[in-house]
Each structure stands twice: as C-alpha cells, then as structure tokens.
Amino acid sequence: MVKSPVSLDWFQRVPQPSSLVFLIHLLLFLQPRESNSEEVKVIGPGESILANVGEEVEFPCHLSPYRDAEHMEILWFRSQASDVVHLYQDRRELPGRQMAQFQNRTTLIKDEILDGAVILQLQDVLPADQGSYGCRFLSRDDSFSGEAVWELEVAGMGSDPHISLEGFKKGGIQLRCSSSGWYPKPQAQWRGHLGQCLPPEFEAITQDARGLFSLETSVVVQGGAHSNVSCSIQNPVLLQKKEFVVQIA
C-alpha cells in the first residue's frame, strides 16, 4: 500500500476555531454603529399651532422611542435657546431663567416624564407670543441632545360690531360701525339690503398696548334707498366674521 505524503502547510492554512471567533468579533466591532443621538428623536407638536387670544395653548414634547427623561434638562425656548420660555433642570423647574413675558404664565405637566413625555401649558395667549418655538432634551452626561421646533400663530375675534347713527351728511344718513379686540388686523365690509358692497366714507384701525386692534368705519347712505344696512368685520386668519344689521327709513 502506497502512502501519499501529507503536507503540513495544509494544516497551517486551515483556520483554527479560536481564530474564527476572533475574526468574527473583529468584523462585528468594525461595523459602523449609530449613536444614541441618532437613534432617539425629539417629537414636538408639529409644524404650526393656532392659538386664540386670551386662551391656553399646549406645547407637548416627547422622546421617540420613549425613555426616562426625569434626570434630563428640558428647555422650551423662542427662536433661540437663550430665549427661555420654561426650563426643567436637575429634577426641578427654574422660573428665574424665564423671559419676563412668560413669567407666571407657564405650567409644566410631567406626569409621564419617566416615559420621556412632557407638556408645557402657556396661559393667556397674547399677540406678542406669536412666533417660533422649540423644545430641547439634554442628558446629564451629554450623550444625547435633540430638539424640535414649530410655529405659533395667534388669532382673536373681537367684540360684536356696534352701529350708531351719526346724523345727516351729503344728502344722506351717516352710519358709524366700531369694534375692538381683534388680531390680526381685521377687515370691515358695509353692505346694502340687496347684498351689494357699500364703499366706506372713513375707516381707521388702531392697535393697543396688548397688540389688539380696534376698528372704526363709516358710510353715508341715502334715506329710503337701503332699508337694511349691515356692517361685518372678519378675522383674516380664522375666516370668521361678526355682523350687525340696522334698519333705516
């Protein structure tokens, strides 16, 4: 029986089990990994929120996927992080860091903070509150930082229009219509009994210290020509209006 020579080089080329394990671990280690800051996102209320003047608006923010945020810093801000709307840090709120216009007007709801979900309530919305907002989460070890931004739009319906009889002018009857408390700047329209538009003789719009608009407008109608005359004032954002109708002889 002839024996074939066996080369020792063949055994040397066969990877040993320990070498295979080392090679697998090395390949896994060299694979690119995503950091926590890429895996976790901050979800805000959306691109835009509409709030009514004098009412309350909520700014909900949460982490996705959900994770404990009790020991994180959570900041609500205006257009930049230095404009502090509300700050939660070291498991407590810091009202002294707020901008003056937001002091005593915010409430933090943190019932679900262990799941990474919080809500900031802003009371008594004003026209000056309109603009850009954001919320930012920052972990204690700086391993995660993320934020979400959105726009707050403010609108307000004013008082019911009031029509007064000013007297006779230019062979007709002069009527004056007034209303206040609107935001943004309202639009007024006079109409006759057939629904036709009546050109105003005069119109003035003023803005008070709170940013709300008042409007006065007048029209001259010929006596007997228009049995019913209406004054309507519309909010251009809400597309809602208030109207007053007066009957003249």
From TrEMBL:
GO molecular function annotation: signaling receptor binding
GO cellular component: external side of plasma membrane
Cited CDD domains: IgV_MOG_like
An annotated GO BP: T cell receptor signaling pathway
Cellular location(s): Membrane
Position of the signal peptide: 1-37
Keyword Transmembrane helix among UniProt keywords: yes
Transmembrane parts of this sequence: none
One Pfam family it belongs to: V-set
Keyword entries, A-Z: Immunoglobulin domain, Membrane, Signal, Transmembrane, Transmembrane helix
Keyword Transmembrane helix carried by entry: yes
Start and end residues of each Ig-like domain: 32-145
Predominant localisation class: membrane
InterPro entries: BTN3A2-like_Ig-C, Ig-like_dom, Ig-like_dom_sf, Ig-like_fold, Ig_sub, Ig_V-set, IgSF_BTN/MOG
Name this protein carries in UniProt: Ig-like domain-containing protein
Gene source species: Myotis lucifugus (Little brown bat)
Gene encoding the protein: LOC102429270
